[in-house]
Amino acid sequence: MRLLLSLGAFLCLASLQLSPAQSGNPAASEDAEMERRKILKAADQVDRVDQQVDQIQSRVTSLEQLITELRQQSQSLKESLANAAAKSSEDRAALLEEVSKMLAERKEREKPKPADKPTASKTTEKEGYEHVVAKGDTLSSIAQAYNSEYQLKLTAESIRQANQLPKGAPLKVGQKLLLPSK
86 partner at 20 to 30 Å CA-CA among 92, 96, 101, 145? Predict the structure, then answer.
């Protein structure tokens, strides 16, 4: 486009210069010079506009490339997010399953033990049973528990005598008592 305009301007100038020079009229010569300057000025403006158009086209091309790259990155990020969400969901399900198992195991371990049985007893071959005093135990309650569990005939007095406890002495939590088997 630039080439055509420049060529057209050159042809116009050449024809204008020939016409006034041939006529010999000084006023026509000045008019022709003014026309030539206008044409040169217009050609310069056309060149500047062409340069601006080239710059704009270059920017548009680079922006189109940038948009293409951004679309690719966006698609890649969407895929990464989808993968991360799926993995997170799988991890959450696995974690919930593991916690459920742990809770079930804990619940199984913490099942209440029958309260009727004496707390800690072991037999000694000749003498009887050993009992560890728990909070709230009395000689009477201990005797009653062992009588029902092991079919013994214990009394609070027999336990006191077997352990050489003074009358009215308080029991201490964790204290070991010997319970006669006869």
Answer: 101
The rounded distance, in Å, linking the Cα atoms of 138 and 177 is 11
Question: What percent of the chain lies above the pLDDT cut of 70?
Answer: 78
Q: Are 122 and 143 in contact (CB under 8 A)?
A: no
Q: Any idea where the domains of the chain sit in the sequence? A: 2-84, 121-180
Neighbours of 133 (CB within 10 A): 19
Q: Which residue has the tokens 């026309």?
A: 35
| The architecture CATH gives domain 121-180 | Roll (3.10)
Quickly tell me which residue has 């459920």 as its tokens. 100
Three-state DSSP class for residue 63: helix
3-state secondary structure 135-152: CCCCHHHHHHHHHHHHCC
- Does the global pTM surpass 0.70? no
